[in-house]
Amino acid sequence: MIRVEGDLTDQTGREMFAAAQGCIRRKACEITVDLSSVKNMDSLGGAWLGRLMANARLKKVNVEISGATGQAAELLDMLAPTLSAEPAPGTRRIGLFEDIGGTFLNALSEAREAFELVIEAVYWAVIGPLTGKGLRIENTLDEMHEMGVRAVGIVCLINFLLGLIIAMLSIAQVEPFGLGIYVATVVVIGFARELGAVMTAVVVSARSGAAIAAEMATMVVQEEIDSLRGMGLNPARFLVAPKLVAMIAVMPCLTVLAMFSGVAGGTLVGVVLLKISTNLWLQQTQTYLKAGDIAQGLIKCVVFAFVITLVGCHNGLRVKGGARGVGLATTRSVVMDIFFIIVADMIFAILFYFVFK
């Protein structure tokens, strides 16, 4: 038995705790704390009593408090839930198959959410306006300016520099054989079929795709999306559909500019390094450029626009947490954009090679 005399304060609480530790080390099965002589107890004394109870529970020792009266008894009643609380259970280790199953179920849940978003976005962007449920034209025009007009400079610059690179690499391979003029063919076909659409999609995903995800995620964090739903408004109609229509409208324009910029970069290299006349270079370009090559690039860019917009909106709408969640959603959006762009481009390459060649 541990008997506390006078007031249970910081000093007497320390002495009580030290005595209890001695009993625990002697492997006592039960400890009784007698507070019958305690007149007053302050918060520090109660804290020492709580620490004693917690330490005794860890050592599987039963502690009984007896004899408390007056103010001490009242404080003990207030502290009773804390003194009698069981220790928090340890974290259970998740097994391999449970981890795989959880990942699979989370992926299924996310796929279902993405599918629902695609259906809603397509409906409000395509079917809704045809049935009299109009699109927000002003908002769509603002998005087109932000995604298209303001991206012209960086898209043209990146593709122009890429044209320089492709031309110089090609020259290094074919010039020893006197086939330098065919660099014009490589550049124009490469940009028409592949590079113009893909590089534009990558630039737009890093620029506009990230902005879409950040905007949507911020609206979720600030509960603006919940406010729209509370007012009976569909977020897909008022937020997603204008972005989707704007992106599909501007991506072909940006891709065409990217094609011209890449060819211009290749032309500059051919004229300066190979000393080929501009007229001859452009004639070679026009000879080998087919309408089908441009069509391939334009078809790809429309699909890429669809991917960039919906991936950004999907990641933004499912954000969790505050500012850090917004950053993580934005990063995830850009990574997923580039991944799906490459996967879609691979599918197009297979189709155009084996089916439509």
How many strands, which pairing sense, and closed or not: the largest β-sheet? 3 strands, parallel
Q: Unreliable runs, pLDDT <50, ≥5 residues?
A: none
Instruction: Give, in order, the helices and strands.
Output: EHEHEHHHHHHHHHH
**N- to C-terminal distance:** 93 Å
Q: Which geometry do the CA atoms define?
A: elongated
Percent helix range: over 70%
Strand content bin: 5-15%
Describe the structure.
Helix content is 76%, strand content 7%. It is mainly α and 357 residues long. It folds into 2 domains: 2-83, STAS domain (Transcription Regulator spoIIAA); 102-354, no CATH class. A 3-stranded parallel sheet has the order 1-2-3. α7 (183-221) packs across α10 (278-288). The longest helix is centred in the middle third of the chain and has 39 residues, at 183-221.
Features:
357 residues, mainly alpha, Transcription Regulator spoIIAA, 3-stranded parallel β-sheet, 12 helices
Brief write-up:
By secondary structure, the chain is mostly helical. It is 76% helix and 7% strand. Strand 2, helix 2 (43-58) and strand 3 form a beta-alpha-beta unit.
Write the layout of secondary structure elements.
Elements: E1 2-8, H1 10-25, E2 30-41, H2 43-58, E3 62-66, H3 70-83, H4 96-130, H5 137-147, H6 152-174, H7 183-221, H8 224-230, H9 235-273, H10 278-288, H11 291-317, H12 323-354
